[in-house]
Design brief:
Elements: E1 2-5, E2 10-21, E3 24-39, E4 42-55, E5 64-68, E6 74-81, E7 84-88, E8 94-98
Antiparallel strand pairs: 1-2, 2-3, 3-4, 4-5, 4-6, 6-7, 7-8
Length: about 100
């Protein structure tokens, strides 16, 4: 998973899940673009475009590419320590991201 936050308030998210299946590698990806805003320690992500892709060599009939997905807003409590961003969702799941040089 990776986020890119831009100075103008836009963001891009990409998530990729890959695992070995009986017929080859199964992959799921999710790509979202949208607008991010901050209120105190709360980050609001409002997607403007979300697509998902599935590739399973064992079930090619079920594959899809860039299928539109729901534009569901997300809120996360954010915390930065050094080069690490931690995002905690309403469900308590905490994800940490390390800043990468561009």
């Amino acid at each position: 998973m990776a986020y890119r936050f831009l100075p103008d308030g836009r963001y891009r998210f990409i998530g990729l899940l890959s695992y070995p299946g009986p017929s080859g590698t199964v992959q799921f990806s999710n790509l979202a673009d949208g607008n991010a805003s901050v209120d105190g320690n709360v980050l609001l992500l409002q997607p403007t475009s979300v697509t998902r892709t599935r590739q399973d060599p064992g079930d090619p009939a079920g594959n899809y590419t860039d299928q539109p997905d729901e534009l569901t807003p997300e809120t996360r409590v954010w915390e930065v320590q050094g080069d690490t961003l931690a995002l905690t969702g309403d469900d308590g799941l905490r994800l940490t991201f390390k800043r990468q040089s561009t």
